[in-house]
Structure formats: C-alpha cells, structure tokens
C-alpha cells in the first residue's frame, strides 16, 4: 500500500478564550508515523497564556505570526524570558519547560515540529502540564502536595484546584507577567527573516539555514531547519537529502506547484501547496517546487542538525560533476546534446528565475 504524501492542514485539539492548540494527525498524514515526526501549532489571542509544560519530544519552534513572550527553563538552569516575534526559530531540547504569552492585539501563532522517536506516541507530541485541570498537581493527593512543597492544607488545595483552565487560559488585564530580558535571547533564538542569507539568487529565491553554527542548541535537539523564500514563478532545483534525513515542510506563505519522484522514477506526488499545508518527503526522494506569481515560502526541519543536500540541476548540480562520456552513455545521447545539457544553468544555483 502506497503512503499518502499529500499535504494536510492541522486540526484543532483544544482551546478557549485565550487561544487554541492544533496538531497534524498521523492517521491523516502517515509519514508522521513513518518518520517519527510530530507537528503542531499554538495560537494565542490577546492576553492568551499557554500554561507551563514540557513535552516528550525535542523540537524546533517557529513564530509564524505576531509577537509575544516565551519562558524557557532548560534542565538545571534559570528561566530565560525572551521576546519573540515573527520569523524567530527556537530550539527546544528534551526536558525543557516552556510557557508562552501574548500581550499584543495581533494573534501569536507558533509552529512546533520535532522528533517523536522517544515519545509516548509515534507521530505526535505528548505535553505534560505543570498546572491546570490536567496538570500534575491534580494527580497527586493533597498530602503528597503538602509534603513535597512543604505547604499547609489550604495552600495545597489552592495549588491543586484554583486553576481550572486546560492548557491555555486568558489572563485578566491586571495580571503582570515577566518582562523579556534582551540578554536572555542570545543562543536561544534566531530570527530567520533577519539572519544573513546562506544562498541568495537574484529574482529567484533565498534560504537561511538553521544549524549548530548560528544556533548551537539545535545540536541538542538533533534537528536542522531552514527558511526558503521563492520569488514569483521561480523554481527550486530538484534535489534530495543525501544524508538519509527526512525533510518536514510547512508552507508559510504563498502557493505553488510541487512534484516528488521516488523509487523506479515514479512520480509519487504532484500537487499545489498553499499556506498552512504540511508535508513530508520520504528519504532520498527527489522534490522540486515552482512558485505561483505571488511567491512561495516554507519553513522546514531536517532530522539532522547539519543537513546536506544534493541538487540535480543548477551550477552546483550533481550532473555537472559527471564526465561527458558517462553522461552521453547514461542518457544515450550524442555529444552535441550532452554539450547543450551541460552548458545550461551555469550561473544559477538551487533557485532558478522565471523563464524570460
């Protein structure tokens, strides 16, 4: 039975006045299960507060929209309170406790993608909440809470029962939250929209890579990531991950055509991708995209902290390294055809501008 590779949208899991939590289901996107990948989105309204939690998976968070504040507590470390905004990528290793807060009028939306191979359920995240109606305090008896935190009976009951919200709550206007500290951001987040470009092709596209060089914490997470922006009608070279890594792609903006070719030269997917879609390309399968007139942007995680790709077209394409005689024999073409083939795309790497 062939896997369904078609892109999917997230579905709401829970939420209320403060916001909502959405996730992609392995039953609808089988590659999540096959690749042990989880993906979810957190959307917070004004004064929305995502209660403190930790997850069973390491992941990368990416701010899709808005601005807010995040609290991050690494194991045996102090709380880092950082300002976050659209374009920020944050590496979240195992054991990290986080909370998220939106004090702005614009909705704050954060994407999470990560590795579930050590999680409770393959293909989806399991969060453990520290407070709320489904928090750890509600599971312990009052006498355990009293002993563990050395509090009296009334305090223990308040800790257990006062917060009736689940996962996300809306705070009153008079509640004061911690202010972000600029020095806490260093090493915790990288804004992909402001970072130096790793590749920039005029009238075609650009890419920012997230790796151990610009955000060392991704080494602990075991994931790399990139933000790719393709200009209108431009093309991304056919290519594949050459280090057996999986690429999980979320369409951030725009739309475009996508084709994936797999084993035995079979085209396994031909579709139009749009903002909000998530898709996973199997290992070693070749993928290419052509943007619609408004352009196409996507954020991807790759299941290795320093990914490597082989591109099959362009100035750095693998075919450029193949000797002319081998190329002629492989394609069964005369020398003239080989010369024409080799003479093309000598200046464009990875991204190709629209045809003139």
Commentary on this structure:
With 356 residues, this protein is mostly beta strands. Helix content is 13%, strand content 42%. It has seven helices and 23 strands. The protein has helices at residues 30-35, 136-139, 142-149, 153-161, 218-221, 324-331, 335-343; strands at 11-16, 19-23, 37-44, 48-55, 58-65, 67-73, 79-85, 88-92, 97-101, 108-115, 127-129, 168-170, 189-191, 199-201, 205-210, 224-230, 235-241, 247-261, 267-274, 278-281, 286-302, 309-311, 351-352. The strands form three sheets. Strands 14, 15, 16, 17, 18, 19, 20, 21, 22 and 23 form a ten-stranded antiparallel beta sheet that branches. The protein has a seven-stranded antiparallel beta sheet with strand order 1-2-3-10-5-8-13. Strands 4, 6, 7, 9, 11 and 12 form a six-stranded antiparallel beta sheet that branches. β6 (67-73) and β7 form a beta hairpin. The two termini are 42 Å apart. The mean pLDDT is 94.
């Amino acid at each position: 039975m062939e896997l369904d590779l078609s892109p999917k949208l997230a579905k709401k899991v829970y939420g209320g006045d403060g916001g909502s939590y959405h996730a992609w289901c392995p039953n609808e996107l089988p590659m999540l299960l096959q690749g042990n990948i989880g993906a979810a989105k957190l959307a917070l309204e004004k004064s929305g507060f995502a209660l403190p939690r930790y997850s069973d998976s390491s992941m990368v968070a990416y701010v899709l929209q808005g601005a807010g504040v995040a609290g991050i507590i690494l194991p045996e470390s102090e709380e880092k309170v950082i300002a976050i905004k659209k374009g920020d990528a944050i590496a979240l290793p195992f054991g990290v406790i986080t909370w998220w807060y939106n004090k702005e009028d614009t909705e704050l939306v954060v994407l999470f993608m990560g590795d579930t191979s050590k999680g409770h359920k393959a293909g989806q995240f399991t969060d453990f909440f520290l407070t709320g109606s489904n928090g750890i305090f509600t599971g312990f008896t009052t006498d355990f809470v009293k002993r563990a935190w050395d509090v009296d009976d009334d305090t223990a009951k308040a800790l257990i029962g006062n917060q009736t919200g689940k996962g996300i709550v809306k705070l009153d206007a008079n509640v004061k939250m911690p202010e972000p500290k600029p020095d806490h951001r260093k090493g915790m987040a990288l804004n992909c929209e402001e970072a130096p470009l790793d590749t920039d092709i005029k009238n075609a596209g650009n890419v920012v890579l997230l790796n151990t060089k610009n955000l060392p914490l991704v080494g602990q997470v075991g994931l790399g990531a990139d933000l790719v922006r393709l200009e209108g009608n431009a093309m991304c070279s056919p290519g594949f991950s050459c280090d057996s890594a999986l690429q999980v792609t979320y369409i951030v903006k725009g739309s475009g055509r996508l084709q994936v070719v797999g084993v035995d030269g079979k085209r396994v997917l031909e579709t139009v991708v749009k903002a909000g879609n998530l898709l996973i390309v199997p290992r070693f399968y070749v993928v290419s995209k052509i943007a619609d007139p408004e352009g196409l942007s996507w954020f991807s995680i790759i299941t290795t902290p320093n990914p490597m790709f082989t591109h099959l077209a362009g100035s750095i394409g693998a075919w450029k390294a193949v000797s002319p005689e081998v190329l002629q024999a492989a394609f069964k073409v005369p020398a003239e055809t080989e010369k024409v083939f080799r003479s093309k795309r000598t200046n464009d790497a990875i991204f190709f501008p629209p045809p003139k």
